[in-house]
Write a structure and sequence with these properties.
Layout (H helix, E strand, L loop, with lengths): L2 H4 L14 H13 L1 H18 L2 H14 L2
């Protein structure tokens, strides 16, 4: 769904198949054992949110939708 619109696996987050606790545990283990990768994912996740999903951009998009119906 929507999550895949802003999370890029291995770039700014880690994705795993729904209801697959084994893969989730492996990805969590990877993050625990790799502080550099964990930090890089976190930094890129923050950058993604700031650049694409800031409040200003969100408000602008909401206003555009509302204008279509006013």
């Amino acid at each position: 769904g929507v999550v895949k619109e802003y999370i890029r696996d291995g770039k700014n987050g880690l994705l795993f198949p729904k209801q697959n606790s084994y893969i989730l545990s492996k990805k969590l283990e990877f993050l625990i054992r790799n502080p550099e990768a964990r930090a890089a994912l976190g930094e890129e996740a923050r950058r993604t949110i700031v650049e694409k999903f800031s409040w200003d951009k969100t408000i602008y998009k909401i206003k555009r939708v509302l204008e279509l119906y006013s």
